[in-house]
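Below is a filled-in request sheet from our internal design queue. Each sheet records the structural input a requester submitted and the sequence that came back. We keep these sheets so that new team members can see what a complete request looks like end to end.

REQUESTER: design group, bay 2
PRIORITY: normal
MODE: inverse folding
CHAIN LENGTH: 302
BACKBONE (tokenized):
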């Protein structure tokens, strides 16, 4: 007990949503705050309906990459999470839910691929039957596009899924939203994706947040469709979820539908429109932590 960290975090807040999405705020040993979101979903396959419990997991306190739509990046990076803190979210959220979590998306606070030294050992434990025993195809890592890390991940033995946050079809549009584009251009990112797919023989997903007047025009839809066709990638369209302190807005429903139709014309890939759950509980990453921090201005978050 003296030498081992049995409980790397305590829960300080849980918000439940009308659609039963739940958001957890965890306090770490050094008083840093992180979030995880529990998302129940029913999955139908050939008439059989199975219930799935997904946890959106954080990998860092804050984030260095400063994507303009994201609350997690507003304060910059504080530190990487340890392997225990990554696993702790899954174990403690599962205990709270009273059910086994069987699907993981690493799309919470932080850039997962910027913390591979802690994340890969966590994945080994998550995948192991002696650990959490969650299957590789039920684990998705999402990246803003760290090209060298995508190539490093392509060597990881388990067939985990990869999602790329694209959010812009060309450099000018993407750099308005994601400063990382100044380090790795859209073309460099697409080439890294091709290498990942070649190495893994596995489909990837392109994530695309739709922001009114920023990246929702039909030219961008055309480019997105072309990139997806080139990679044979699935596409996930996510209408923007407003963030306190940021001015961007969600496009109109008509614009969202027109964008989706244009993407579908350009690419044979499957296009899904993900209406995010948990709108009423600050479900965009980093929002609950931000609100808690603003509520307790005297707390030291540095
Ligand atoms: S979207 Fe992800 S990579 Fe971008 S700032 Fe937020 S946490 Fe970081």
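RETURNED SEQUENCE:
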């Amino acid at each position: 007990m003296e030498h081992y960290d049995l409980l790397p975090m305590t829960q300080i807040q849980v918000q439940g949503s009308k659609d039963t999405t739940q958001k957890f705020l965890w306090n770490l040993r050094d008083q840093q705050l992180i979030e995880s979101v529990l998302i129940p979903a029913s999955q139908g396959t050939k008439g059989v309906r199975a219930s799935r419990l997904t946890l959106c997991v954080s990998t860092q306190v804050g984030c260095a990459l400063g994507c303009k739509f994201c609350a997690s990046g507003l304060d910059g990076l504080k530190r990487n999470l340890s392997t225990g803190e990554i696993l702790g979210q899954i174990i403690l959220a599962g205990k709270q839910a009273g059910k086994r979590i069987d699907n993981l998306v690493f799309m919470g606070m932080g850039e997962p691929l910027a913390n591979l030294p802690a994340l890969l050992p966590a994945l080994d434990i998550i995948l192991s039957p002696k650990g959490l025993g969650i299957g590789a195809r039920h684990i998705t890592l999402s990246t803003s596009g760290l090209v060298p890390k995508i190539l490093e991940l392509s060597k990881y033995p388990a067939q985990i899924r990869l999602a790329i946050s694209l959010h812009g079809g060309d450099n000018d549009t993407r750099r308005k939203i994601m400063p990382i584009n100044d380090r790795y251009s859209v073309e460099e990112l697409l080439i890294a994706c091709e290498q990942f797919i070649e190495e893994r023989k596995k489909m990837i997903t392109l994530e695309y947040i739709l922001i009114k007047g920023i990246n929702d025009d039909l030219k961008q839809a055309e480019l997105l469709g072309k990139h997806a066709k080139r990679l044979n990638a699935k596409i996930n369209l996510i209408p923007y979820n407003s963030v306190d302190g940021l001015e961007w807005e969600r496009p109109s429903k008509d614009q969202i539908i027109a964008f989706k139709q244009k993407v579908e014309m350009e690419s044979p890939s499957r296009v899904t429109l993900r209406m995010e759950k948990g709108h009423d509980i600050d479900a965009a990453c980093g929002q609950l932590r931000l609100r808690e921090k603003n509520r307790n201005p005297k707390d030291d978050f540095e």
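SHEET NOTES:
- Residues 225 and 263 are 5 Å apart (CA to CA).
- The pocket of iron/sulfur cluster is lined by residues 63, 65-67, 70, 72-73, 109-111, 144, 285 (CB under 6 Å).
FILED BY: M.R.
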